[in-house]
Amino acid sequence: EKPYNHQEIELNWSQRWTADPELYKAVNDGTKPRYYVLEMLPYPSGRLHMGHVRNYSIGDTLARYQWMRGFDVLHPMGWDAFGLPAENAAIKNNRHPSEWTHSNIAHMKKQLLRMGFAYDWDREVSTCEPEYYRWNQWFFLRMMERDLAYRKVSLVNWCPECATVLANEQVENGCCWRHETTPVEQRELVQWFLRITAYAEQLLDDMKQIEAGWPSQVLTMQRNWIGRSQGTEVDFGLAGTDQKIRVFTTRVDTIYGATCVILAPEHPLSKQLCEGALAVQLKAMVDDQSRKDPENLVKEGFFTGHYAVNPYNGATVPIWIANFVLWGYGTGAIMAVPAHDERDFEFCTKYGISIVPVIRPVDGPLAIIATEPFTEYGIVENSGEWSGLPSADARKLMSARAKENGFGEAAITYRLKDWGVSRQRYWGTPIPVVHCPACGVVPVPDDQLPVLLPSDVELTGQGKSPLANHPSFLNTTCPKCGGPAQRETDTMDTFVDSSWYFFRYVDPKNDKLPFTPETVQPWFPVDQYIGGVTHAILHLLYSRFWCKVMRDIGLVKVDEPFKNLFTQGMVQLNGQTMSKSKGNIVDPDEMVEKYGADTCRLFTLFAAPPEKNMDWNESSVEGQYRFLTRLFKWVTRNADATEGSGETDAQALRKLHQTIRKITSDFDNRWHFNTSIAALMELLNALQAAEAGMSPAVRQEVAAKLTLLIAPFAPYAAEELWATIGRTGPVFRQSWPAFDPELAKEEALEIPVQVNGKLRGRITAAHGSTKEEQEALALADEKVLAFIAGRPIVKVITLPGKLVNIVIKG
Ligand code: ANZ
Ligand code: ZN
Ligand code: ZN
């Protein structure tokens, strides 16, 4: 028997693993089936946190298991290294973002190595390196060629604190995602956009391909985010002019009930129609931050003094401007039908705008609308030639009429907007274009990539991108005419970096292309992606979009990058999310020092099913440490045992094979690692009980198999045990033990049966049989039946597996 010296064991193997770059390499020669395990790459914020430890423990356990199952496993790691925090830290601590980032990476890499995670470090990717970000630029140019990257003046979300533009997804409750109390303002800027909306339909359709492997909750979130809506666009006339106002409606069948047209405050026509006092009112409405919270918005609006003409019936209705009409959805203008729409009803009631019902229930008359609108489909009434039609038919026919007469058409609208990728920040990928006074916007030619991020910049955190204040970066020559020109000074959103890094892992040193299609193809789609549900929309949607663009460029063959997605729960302390501000962070380093990485891994896997939140509980960590210690001792004690009669061999082997069966099934069906570890604890208890009676051969066999079983969960201890019991390593390159169904079979149970408290027979029931099954057997037993002799049964009292007592009358 040997003591379990976790520090010594782990430091020793950690050094040996780190020194051997071949160890965790994907062989990639096609001799074995491939398996790609991918975990979301960390932002190098400084230190690993428990969320990382959990995410990477899950991934590492899976990777090691798949190695043992005989797969050629690709298990890479990298750094999502561009982004604002580096820049903010730089401003605060007077350190260069690059230096800050690189020293964080060095530290966190050490922590990952200390945890014993099995990564193929030769494939390490860091997104802030020119060798990586030049391909962001390359992709950007390909997207420009395809009109998928474009510039437009737009109102953008602006965080005064960050002094930068935010993507819609970075706005939470009207505030900046990084500054929870800083309201986001609106600014007009020329911005670069990626046309993700061109793929909206495919992003929805292709969900079929991943439905089986993704959490349905994530797909639902994406579906809602894309927000497809089928309806009609209709041009109202601006009375007294030949200008048109295009509205989007899902209920064109209600258009005879439209009693006003309402514009979004940002609509260009709003500015045109408002003068003097109205213009002041309009500006206030544009800047009003309460609009960012549509759920609780108090609907407000004002009449412009102008009128619109309904193209179906020539009716003239007033034009209003209201805060609840969104610019950026549909056409930014609506027809209000208060009789049949909730929001319109509320608004029109408030302002005394007339209410005209035009839809009746299928089985009732047209009702006066007084207290609530009738929002269902029904039969169209008071609508000229369309009267009498069911809503659905009217929608179709009326859309067709709009098209015929040139005042509209059927249309599909998405909530999804194009992806604004411009950032007025330093620490990101420079957008590879040049602005020439003569030629306009000129893409930087491929052979001039990368456009390098200069290192000598002044970071103020204010206003324009620091690159705009860097003359030697800014001033350049036009690639087209050779004249003086200026570089674009915006950098790319960091979500660009993380949209394709997992392709680069497969071919990380390629300097001709982002990757060679043939090299990458056999590894895709990724077999298993693991990460936080916080990325359900942003990162995962962008990655899906990027994959489709790469497919259309001819770089990849798959429509979808990730076949299976797993979203792990959070690590909490006493039910609360760990955070610096709450001061309840458990530091992984301290835990590793005290209990060892293996124990930390075991605990994070044991404490909860991986998809659920888990609570950090130090006494339960200690429990795992004791378990590992007992296991270590049992194996070292029994591996070279020489004594034992063998009377408990069958019993020990049965438990062993049952445990193999259980853990294998846990791995293959949704990773119930917590129950796997519980099964291992049970096995160890059974083995300790059986130990004295086990024969030397069986002791040795069980010791070896137990080592293999613990290997994916506690790799250091397993590797040490494997060497200690005289086997050749590494342990995770051994085959995962198979279970023998015969050996795993339970012995039958013998259960005594009593009648009125006296033993009258015995039944043989299977292990794990239910109370009901055991009662049924007892009541069918011939001896027992003979004794009951037809007398009525009052009740049956059963201690499952132990006793059945039948109480009869008489
Ligand atoms: C008239 C109407 C009558 C409408 C009716 C609905 C019911 P979804 O399904 O979410 O796509 N709408 C259109 N653009 C809007 C905007 N920019 N801001 C606010 N509301 C807008 O909703 C589409 C419906 O939302 C449209 O159909 C329009 O109101 C409103 F009985 O038009 B409807
Ligand atoms: Zn901010
Ligand atoms: Zn030029």
Question: How are the secondary structure elements laid out?
Answer:
Elements lengths: L5 H13 L15 E6 L10 H19 L3 E3 L3 E2 L4 H10 L3 H19 L9 E2 L3 H16 L3 E11 L4 E3 L4 E2 L2 E2 L8 E10 L5 H6 L1 H4 L5 H11 L1 E11 L5 E6 L10 E4 L4 H6 L3 H11 L13 E9 L6 E7 L10 E4 L5 H10 L7 E2 L18 E2 L10 H14 L3 E7 L4 E2 L1 E2 L9 E4 L3 E4 L27 H4 E3 L6 E4 L3 E2 L8 H4 L12 H4 L7 E5 L5 H16 L11 E4 L2 E3 L2 E2 L10 H8 L1 H10 L7 E3 L1 H21 L10 H20 L4 H18 L5 H15 L4 H10 L16 H4 L4 E7 L2 E8 L5 H10 L1 H7 L4 E7 L3 E6 L2
Helix pairs in contact: 1-23, 2-18, 3-4, 17-18, 18-19, 19-21, 19-22, 20-21, 20-22, 22-23
The protein binds ligand ANZ and zinc ion (2 copies).
Strand content: 15-25%
For the sheet with most strands, the description reads: 7 strands, mixed
Tell the overall outline. Answer: globular
Number of helices: 26
Distance between the termini: 62 Å
Structure explained in plain terms:
- This protein is an alpha+beta fold and 810 residues long.
- Helix content is 36%, strand content 20%.
- Strands 10, 11, 12, 13, 14, 15 and 18 form a seven-stranded mixed beta sheet that branches.
- Strand 10 (228-238) and strand 11 form a beta hairpin.
- Helix 3 (84-93) packs across helix 4 (97-115).
- The chain starts with 5 loop residues before the first helix and ends with a strand.
- The model has no long low-confidence stretch (mean pLDDT 93).
- The chain binds ligand ANZ and zinc ion (2 copies).
- Ligand ANZ binds next to strand 11 and strand 15.
- A motif ('KMSKS' region) lies at residues 577-581.
- Residues 416-616 form the Aminoacyl-tRNA synthetase class Ia domain.
- This is Leucine--tRNA ligase.
